[in-house]
Amino acid sequence: MKPKIEELMKYKLLTIALLGLVVLNFAQQKKAGSIASQSILSAKITKTIQLDSTAAFTNYFEGKFFSFSKEGVIVSSDTTGKVLWKQQIPGNISAEPVIVENILVIATDNNDINTFDIKTGSQLQSISVEDKITTPLFAFNYAGTNELMIPKQTNSKAAVVFGMASGKISCLDLETLQEYWQNGDQKDTLYTKPILLNNKLVFTRGDGSLNSIDANTGLLIWRWQEEELSNFSKANLETDGKSIFVVSADSVFHSINFLLGRLNWRLENIKVDSKFFYSTSQKNLYLISSNEKLIIFSVKDEVTVDDFKLRYNLPNNSYNFFEFEKKVFFVYNGIIYEAEEKQLLKEVLKLDFADVKSFYQLGENKFAALSYNGKLTIFIMR
């Protein structure tokens, strides 16, 4: 009788052990599935090409790169690095060019504005303006009622706006280079690219103020400057569609009501770099603090939701951000990281150069990083 009891006990123990192995295997499979579902995106370098290493500006438009040297040399290349055409224009290129509707618009230091066909490089128009252009050129669709003296040949509404050393702001029709309007209310030089929202342009001025201009008429809507120390004369502007985000010369981050030109809030206790990123999907700001931290800041809640201490210094503002599939990526010291709140920075791809001069999105999942020596690395996210 006793041997039968022992055999029964062995059978029960074996059954329990087998059940334990089944449960453990199921748990491991479930965990593996969970990890796979939460895995980060990856990236792969597909091509490296060499662009003009002397270029002051490099633009990308519909499969082509356009490099502009200060000496007036324009080079058009495709994504394989093949040169499509090359042009030399009189004067130095003094402001960042713009491309719209297959037309390249360039301003030179001899106060000329030139337009070119981007496919052939042939010149279309040229006009002289009264003063040196000091802001990047900015293109938008004109929606006003001002009439031009010479009739247009097309229905294009494309216009180009820019600021000058004299403080004047001018808006030209792209096709004919005729003037729609000019604002000469103030005398302070303008420096930075404006932002546009609901037919309102916002510029920074040399006196440190922000100015909202009606894009259809050129009339001043509001002027804002909080205090003398809050100088925004050379600050970059961003918007979430409701507010203007800007960093003053004393490294204080401000949020300003776009419609009214009034202060919403400012970050009193954090000094930040002038370069920052706004995530349209996450509604968060990505800031770099003076003590080398990457800060994720919630616009809605007006609080810091996370921060990361960076291991390396950031020379020349040589870092960038981009967004892909509702995730934000931080390009820093030659490495692309996924930057999500409540998680560590996750390395996605290592570039073959440390300092990134410019960053471009070439397609839905294709991007490119440009080094200071003209080396361009193209990669895909997957």
Q: Can you walk me through this structure?
A:
This protein is mainly beta and 382 residues long. Helix content is 9%, strand content 44%. It has one helix and 32 strands. Strands 1-32-31-30 form a four-stranded antiparallel β-sheet, with no helix packed on it. A four-stranded antiparallel β-sheet has the order 2-3-4-5, with no helix packed on it. A four-stranded antiparallel β-sheet has the order 6-7-8-9, with no helix packed on it. The radius of gyration is 27 Å and the shape is globular.
Strand content: 35-45%
Low-confidence stretches: 21-39
Tell me the structural class.
mainly beta
Helix count? 1
Helix content: under 10%
Distance between the termini: 66 Å
What's the average pLDDT?
88
**Strand line-up in the sheet with most strands:** 1-32-31-30
Based on DSSP secondary structure assignment, what is the total number of beta strands?
Answer: 32
- Please summarize the sheet with the most strands: 4 strands, antiparallel
Q: Can you tell me the overall shape?
A: globular
Instruction: Please compute the radius of gyration using only Cα atoms.
Output: 27 Å
Summary of the model, kept short:
The chain is mainly β and 382 residues long.
Highlighted features:
382 residues, mainly beta, four-stranded antiparallel beta sheet, 32 strands, 9% helix
Fold topology:
Elements: H1 2-37, E1 43-50, E2 55-61, E3 64-69, E4 73-78, E5 83-88, E6 98-100, E7 103-107, E8 112-117, E9 123-128, E10 138-141, E11 158-163, E12 169-173, E13 179-183, E14 195-197, E15 200-204, E16 210-214, E17 220-224, E18 238-239, E19 243-247, E20 253-257, E21 263-266, E22 277-279, E23 284-288, E24 293-298, E25 303-309, E26 319-324, E27 327-332, E28 335-338, E29 346-350, E30 356-361, E31 366-371, E32 375-381
